[in-house]
Amino acid sequence: MSDDLLPDEFFGLNSEASDRPARQWTGVDGDFKPAFSNRDAGPSLGQTLPGHDGPGPQPRGGFKFVSVGDLDLAPPKFLVDGLIEVDGLGVIFGEPGCGKSFLAVDLACSIATGAGFHGRAVRTGPVLYIAGEGHHGLARRFRAWERLRATPLKGAPLFKSTCAAQFLDPDSASQVITQAGAMADEHGDPVLVIVDTLARNYGPGDENSTADMSRFVAAMDRLRDQYPACVVLIVHHSGHQEKERGRGSTALKAAADTEFVVVKDGNAVELRCTKMKDAEAPRDLRFQLTDVDLLGDESMKSAALVETDNGASVSRQGVKQKPMSPTNQIYWDGILDYFGGEGRTELMMPKRGMRKMPCADIDDVRDHCWRAKGVTQNTGTDRSQWSRALDELLARKKVGIFGRKIWLA
Length: 409
Description:
By secondary structure, the protein is α/β, with parallel strands linked by helices. Helices cover 28% and strands 20% of the residues. β13 and β14 (357-361) form a beta hairpin.
C-alpha cells in the first residue's frame, strides 16, 4: 500500500491543486481506483442553504406534513445487527491508545467483506475510511485483520483516503462529497463512512464551540444524505477530565444516533453503548487485542481484536475482575498466538448454519500450546490441564469446539 502521498495533495486541496487532477481514494490492497464522477456534489458544505438561518441540511424530499395515521411501523434496520442502525450518525470515543481505531478497522473490514462482525450479521457494501493520521500503521491494521480472520481484502469495496479532510473548510468538504460520489459511481453507494479521527478531520474551528461542532455535524449529515442508508461513524477522543464523554461540545452527542465508549486495560478492550436513540442498547462487548505476525518472520507485527465475551468486565477505573487461572491463561495466550500467527487454519463452517471462520485441528493447537509452555513429554497432568483449560474457555465462550475442530468464538 502506498502511503507516500503528500498531505496537501489529498483531493487536490492546496492552492495549486485546481490545475491538476485530484488525488484518488485508494483500496486497502494498495490499488488506486478511478475517480471520475458525473454526480452533482450539491452546494458547498460550508454555505447556508437558501431559506435557512443556519447550516442545517434541507430535509430529504423537502419540508411537508403527513398524517400520523398513515405512518408505517417499521422495525429498526441494522448495519451491524443489534449494534448500529442504518441511516445514522455514530460516534466511537475513548482515550488515546484505547483501541478505538482497531474497532473502526474491524467494522470497516467486516462490512466491506460481508464476513460479519464477531458473529453478528452485517449489511454488506462499500466502505470509505477517511484517515486523518497514521497511514502506515493503518495499513498494518488492515493486514492484521485480514490474516487473523483469513478473509482477503483484495477486491473488497473498502477504500481509505490518502490524507485528512477538513470538514469545516467548505472547499475541502465539497471535495469529499465529489470523491465519495466518484467511488459510488464505480462501486455502488457506500453503506459506511468512517471519519478517523474527528480532531484530524475537523478543520479550522474549535471543538468546544457549539456553533463549530454544529457545522461539523451538518457536514456529516450532508455527506450521509447523499446515500439513503449510509452510516457516518466518527472516531473521537474522550474528554480530558471526563473520560466517560466525548471531548468538546455536547452538540455531537446530541446529534448522534449511536454512541460507544471504548475502555482498555492491558490487552482487554471493552465497547460500551452510551447512547442508542431508537433501539434497545446492546450489552457491553469485550475483546482481546492480539498480536498478528504480518510477514511470517516476526519482522513486522500489528494487532487485531478477538471477542472474548467472558463476563470479566473492565471496570470504570480500568481494572479487570474474575481473571482466569494462570495456567488457563497460558493456554488461552497460546491459542491466540496460534490463530494470530503461523498456525495452520482453514476457512470453513464449523457447524451447519454457522458462518465460515478460521478453524484449526484441536491437536495441532494443543501441541502448539505445549511447545510454548515448554512441555516436551505430555504427562497425564499436562493432558488434564489442557482439558480443564478448554472447559473454562468453552464456559467463557472464548472458543468453540466441534469434533476435532476448534475456533475463536
